[in-house]
C-alpha cells in the first residue's frame, strides 16, 4: 500500500502528501504526551495546514478515512490536532496512513484512523463537528 494523503478543496495548493512530507516537518511530536492512549510520532495539523495554505473562506476540514468514515471539524478546533503517522519508527499498522487525533475538540469523535483525504471546505462557522460513515452505494448496487 502506498502512503498517500490527498489534500484538496479551499487551499492554495492541492497536493498528495507522502511519508517524506511528514518526515520533513519541523515539529515531530511524541503523541503519547498529548493523547496517552496512543503511542508513536506525529506532526501538528497546523504545520501541514501551513504548507497547504487554506483559503480564508475555509471554515471546516473534512477528514475522509479509507473505510468511508468521515469527520467534519471546524478549523478552530484543530489547533492542537496531531497526525499520528508512525509507531516504533515504522508506518502505522493500525490506522495507516495517518490517524488524526484531536485532543481538545467538541466532537465525540476525537480521532479518525486511516485518513486518506483532507478536504478544506466552507460551511456555516457555527456548524459543530460531525462524523459518520458515508455509506456510498452505486446505482448498480441498488
What is the helix tally? 2
Largest sheet: 11 strands, mixed
Low-pLDDT residue intervals, each spanning 5 or more residues: none
How many domains in all?
A: 1
Q: What is the 3D shape?
A: globular
Structural features, described:
The protein has 142 residues and is mostly beta strands. The protein has a single domain, classed as Alpha-Beta Complex (Sulfite Oxidase, Chain A, domain 2). It is 9% helix and 37% strand. The protein has helices at 19-23, 45-52, and strands at residues 5-9, 15-17, 29-30, 41-44, 60-65, 69-74, 82-87, 90-91, 98-101, 111-121, 130-133. Strands 1, 2, 3, 4, 5, 6, 7, 8, 9, 10 and 11 form an eleven-stranded mixed beta sheet that branches. A hairpin with a 5-residue loop joins strand 1 and strand 2 (15-17). The longest helix has 8 residues, at 45-52. The protein starts with a strand and ends in a 9-residue tail after the last strand. The model has no long low-confidence stretch (mean pLDDT 88).
In short:
The chain is mostly beta strands. The protein is built from 2 helices and 11 strands; from the N terminus they run ββαββαβββββββ. It has one domain: Alpha-Beta Complex (Sulfite Oxidase, Chain A, domain 2), CATH 3.90.420.10.
What attributes does this structure have?
globular, eleven-stranded mixed sheet, 142 residues, mainly beta, single chain, 37% strand, 9% helix, Sulfite Oxidase, Chain A, domain 2, 2 helices, 11 strands
Write the layout of secondary structure elements.
Layout lengths: L4 E5 L5 E3 L1 H5 L5 E2 L10 E4 H8 L7 E6 L3 E6 L7 E6 L2 E2 L6 E4 L9 E11 L8 E4 L9
Parallel strand pairs: 1-10
Antiparallel strand pairs: 1-2, 3-4, 4-7, 5-6, 5-10, 6-11, 7-8, 7-9, 9-10
Amino acid at each position: 500500500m502506498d502512503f498517500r494523503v490527498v489534500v484538496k478543496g479551499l487551499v492554495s495548493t492541492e497536493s498528495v502528501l507522502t511519508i517524506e512530507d511528514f518526515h520533513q516537518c519541523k515539529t515531530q511530536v511524541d503523541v503519547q504526551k498529548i493523547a496517552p492512549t496512543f503511542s508513536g510520532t506525529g506532526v501538528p495539523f497546523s504545520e501541514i495546514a501551513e504548507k497547504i495554505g487554506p483559503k480564508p473562506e475555509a471554515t471546516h476540514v473534512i477528514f475522509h478515512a479509507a473505510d468511508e468514515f468521515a469527520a467534519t471539524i471546524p478549523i478552530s478546533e484543530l489547533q492542537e490536532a496531531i497526525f499520528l503517522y508512525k509507531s516504533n519508527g515504522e508506518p502505522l499498522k493500525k490506522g495507516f496512513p495517518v490517524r488524526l487525533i484531536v485532543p481538545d475538540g467538541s466532537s465525540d469523535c476525537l480521532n479518525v484512523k486511516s485518513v486518506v483525504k483532507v478536504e478544506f471546505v466552507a460551511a456555516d462557522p457555527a456548524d459543530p463537528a460531525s462524523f459518520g460513515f458515508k455509506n456510498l452505494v452505486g446505482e448498480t448496487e441498488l
